[in-house]
Amino acid sequence: MNPLNAQNPSTPKAQALVLAAGRGERMRPLSDTTPKPLLRVRERSLIEHALTQLGSAGVRHAAINTAWLGPQIRTQLKNPYPIGSTQEAGPTLDLSFSCEDLDFGGALETGGGIVRALPLLDDVFWVMAGDVYAPDFDFPKDALERFIRSPHLAHLWLVPNPAHHTKGDFWIEDGRACRLEDASTTLSQKTYTFSTIALYKKAFFFAPFCEIEEGNPRGVKAPLAPWLKEAMKDHLVGASLYEGQWTDVGTPERLAQLNA
Questions:
Q1: What span, in angstroms and rounded, lies between the C-alpha atoms of 135 and 249?
Q2: Each residue's pLDDT tens digit, 174-218
Q3: From the CB of residue 46, how many other CB atoms can be counted at a distance below 10 Å?
Q4: How many CA atoms does the CB half-sphere of 158 hold within 13 Å?
Q5: 8 A C-beta contact, residue 219 and residue 108
């Protein structure tokens, strides 16, 4: 099978990957006919908010992985994607697609999907879920530069725990993300939720943390969290706290609240 669907080897590498392959079970019935990233928050879809933010931060080429109702996403997003007003000439964002629906008939989960898209991506790249709404996040260039110079293989942005996820995912110590199971049993650690926004180096998606062949030609399904937790044991995952507006738009109720 082709390493990536109709990918031209001369195409410049993407500096970001927007995850848009999931089924969105909790968003049913809305997601039965519309992929979750195309659901609208005010004037545009969730994924368009993400693409506009990336383009405004200086990203000029982004990749998107698709599976559930993938043709809708690939058809609706104009390529190149206009960053500013669609009525004015201005900067644009080139798009590439990793088509898990065409290549394997369904989504490969977060880890498997990122490895599948790896040939499209630059050596260091942003990742963000296409169903997250964080309108104030500016994909800071200084954070990117610090990450490149650091020994870390990943850097996560964590957020205060929302009402639907009070336990959290990780805690922060000395600028590093730490596993919940490593929290002190005598001192309560303040935990946070993974926003899905992160920086990664390609090296993270190779052994010893990831054993899937580059480009995931066999379509292996794999979650991302176990790889991150293994890298945290070696202090290779950085973390920052983001306290701006952030919503995991996972249910019709949360979407309605944003549009109220």
A1: 13
A2: 999 999 887 664 446 789 999 999 999 999 999 999 999 999 999
A3: 25
A4: 26
A5: yes
Which domains does the chain possess? 14-259 (3.90.550.10)
What is the rounded CA–CA span in Å between residue 11 and residue 107?
Answer: 24
DSSP E strands, 77-181: 81-82, 92-99, 121-129, 132-133, 154-159, 170-173, 176-179
Measure the CA–CA gap between 136 and 120, rounded to whole angstroms: 27
**pTM for the complete prediction?**
0.91
**Contact, 116 vs 98, CB < 8 A?**
yes
d(CA 227, CA 175): 19
From first CA to last CA, the distance across the chain in angstroms is 46
Taking Cα atoms as reference points, which of 132, 162, 129, 127 lies closest to residue 249? 132
Decide: helix, strand or coil at residue 129. strand
Max CA separation in the chain (angstroms): 59
Q: How far is CA 100 from CA 33, 54, 137, 174, in A?
A: 18, 23, 28, 38
- Which helix H or strand E contains 238, and what residues bound it? strand 237-241
Say whether 239 sits in a helix, a strand or coil.
strand
Q: What backbone torsions phi and psi does residue 66 show, to the nearest 5 degrees?
A: -130, 150
Task: Count CB neighbours of 184 within 10 A.
Answer: 8
140, 120, 125, 149: which is closest to 199 by C-alpha? 125
137-174 tens-digit pLDDT:
999 999 999 999 999 999 999 999 998 888 999 999 99
Structure tokens, 71:
């043709």
